[in-house]
Write a structure and sequence with these properties.
With 529 residues, the chain is an alpha/beta fold. It has three domains: 78 residues, Alpha-Beta Plaits; 237 residues, FAD/NAD(P)-binding domain (3-Layer(bba) Sandwich); 189 residues, no CATH class. It has 13 helices and 26 strands. The strands form seven sheets. The chain has a seven-stranded mixed β-sheet with strand order 15-16-19-14-23-20-22. A five-stranded parallel β-sheet has the order 8-7-6-12-25, with helices on one face. Strand 9 and strand 10 form a beta hairpin. It is globular, with a radius of gyration of 24 Å. 48% of the residues are buried.
Length: 529
């Protein structure tokens, strides 16, 4: 097949006949000689809002391929490269016990999937509930504000990403095609096929839940085992090697290899790991607020008069303040909700969530400010305490529900009394507050400096009735669990993995790190006979 890049098609002409015509024009080939094509990439070029078009990359099956490749000197036309992923088992050390994976978020789930497909039959321990029960627990929390500390938006099968937009964006380089294999597994288990080629792929929380159930059932069919409501409360270590795990402070399970895929919010586990001598270090992260605007306003700004022909628009904004603070949008959710994502009693944190169709009236995004060791300290777990302090203040300020404030009132440091034209699209309840009382002064100042700049990029971003919601404090793990080139921590047999361990950020990179971890295990160990 032939790879053809930079095929541009006006959005209003995006139909099969036009696609074939444009491919043939690019190849300088009669349309009748094109037998088939496959979309490899698809993005939107909206730089000129009066002339918006899709930019495609195709693999094309046609007659006279060798002749075309020989005669055509266009750099956008070349032989389709091999882009296959291969999982190899070269390990020779026999396993005496099942591989145990702690956590069933993206990194744990994909580590389990790869190991199970290779015959390792892993055991997955999840502190929360299976997704079907977890959804009911979270919905009950939104209504009653009664928190299940082990099963909520942060914890449970699928991890924190299950209650998000299901974004799969990543800038990770993929010379080993792990990213492609991750997407293939998603599609094989029910994700929409367009994630294989869309420039900004997403699944949506509603579809992602079904995909996770299918992945779980597939892992079980390949010999894997899941145990829910199973919190790891201790590590039993002998001679600097993992020997067993304590579950729920009572049950002991023998362990030889443990994948630590605990997620960025497993605070009790981080403290337990520190007590057991697992080497960790603090990591920089970011905190701030969520901001809501009408989705129609965002889409019209991004796409102009054509916005109704296109999917709900997203944005990505960055700014550096006069004092050197980085401010940026994060986890932008077109047509979505802001949700109470708390996981600890007396603490409150928000996140964004969208369904697959992204058809809610508001867009929301985190607007966050970078923080570092100078702000929270050098101790490996000082970032956690920094987050906790802010989350306790958010809980108190909002009276147990999400504290919100209009942008105009935020700038004036006064508590909002009523809404403007924008109504908050919130799951979990809200109350008016002055977020200046919540945020450290340097974060408030940074946001007040950045938002008018963002208004120059998106007209209306700094509108008076834009809604700010606090607090967004779990942008990434505040901890790195140190591992060597073999993927192992200072405790032999313990493999830190994913976002919680500090090696990923988001669903895709976490899943890729799960795949990498499975590879590293397979390089050393062979399956149980």
């Amino acid at each position: 097949m032939i790879r053809v890049r930079q095929v541009k098609i006006p959005i209003e002409l995006d139909k099969k006949n036009e696609i074939i015509f444009r491919i043939s024009k690019k190849l300088q080939l009669n349309q009748k000689l094109i037998k088939n094509y496959k979309i490899i990439k698809k993005s939107i070029d909206a730089r000129d809002k009066n002339n918006i078009f899709y930019v495609y990359e195709f693999d094309v099956l046609c007659d006279r391929e060798d002749k075309i490749l020989k005669e055509n000197k266009n750099k956008d036309i070349f032989k389709t490269p091999k882009e296959t992923y291969h999982f190899s088992i070269s390990g020779t050390i026999p396993l005496k016990e099942k591989i145990i994976i702690i956590g069933s978020g993206p990194s744990g789930l994909f580590a389990a999937y790869m190991l199970a497909s290779a015959g390792y039959k892993p055991l997955i321990l999840e502190r929360g509930e299976r997704i079907e029960d977890r959804v009911k627990t979270v919905e009950d929390f939104f209504i009653t504000n009664t928190l299940n500390k082990n099963s909520n938006i942060q914890f449970g099968e699928g991890g924190a990403g299950t209650f998000s937009d299901g974004k799969l964006n990543t800038l990770a380089k993929d010379k080993f095609n792990r990213n492609k294999r991750v997407f293939e597994i998603f599609v094989e288990n029910g994700a929409p096929e367009e994630i294989m080629y869309e420039a900004k792929p997403h699944i949506g929380t509603d579809v992602l839940r079904k995909v996770i159930i299918n992945m779980r059932n597939k892992i079980i069919s390949m010999g894997g085992e899941f145990r829910y409501n199973s919190l790891v409360t201790d590590l039993i270590i002998e001679n600097n090697s993992i020997k067993a795990l304590e579950i729920n402070e009572k049950e002991i399970i023998k362990a030889q290899i443990v994948v630590l895929a605990i997620g960025h919010s497993a605070r009790e586990t981080f403290y337990m790991l520190k007590e057991k001598g697992v080497v960790m270090r603090a990591k920089n992260f970011a905190v701030g607020v969520r901001i809501e605007h009408p989705q129609e306003m965002i889409s019209e700004n991004q796409y102009g008069k054509y916005y109704k022909l296109l999917e709900p628009a997203s944005y990505k904004l960055t700014y550096q303040t006069s004092k050197g603070r980085g401010v940026y949008s994060f986890c932008m959710c077109p047509g979505g909700f802001v949700v109470n994502a708390s996981s600890e009693e007396g603490c409150l944190v928000v996140n964004g969530m969208s369904n697959y169709k992204r058809d809610e009236v508001n867009a929301n995004s985190a607007l966050v400010v970078t923080v570092n060791k100078e702000d929270f300290g050098d101790d490996p777990l000082s970032g956690i305490e920094f987050q906790r302090k802010l989350e306790r203040k958010a809980f108190e300020l909002g009276g147990g529900v999400i504290p919100i404030q209009l942008y105009e009132d935020f700038c004036c440091c006064i508590e909002s009394k009523k809404l403007g034209k924008i109504g908050p699209n919130v799951m979990g309840g809200y109350s008016f507050a002055d977020l200046n009382q919540l945020l450290p002064e340097y974060i408030s100042e940074a946001l007040k400096e950045a938002i008018p700049y963002f208004d120059q990029k998106i007209n209306g971003f700094a509108r008076k009735d834009a809604i700010l919601l606090g607090i967004e404090s779990r942008t990434s793990s505040p901890v790195v669990i140190v591992r060597d080139e073999k993927g192992i921590s200072n405790i032999d047999g313990l493999y830190p993995c994913g976002e919680g361990a500090g090696y990923a950020g988001g669903i895709t990179t976490s899943a890729i790190d799960g795949v990498k971890t499975a590879e590293k295990i397979a390089m050393i160990y062979k399956c149980i006979d």
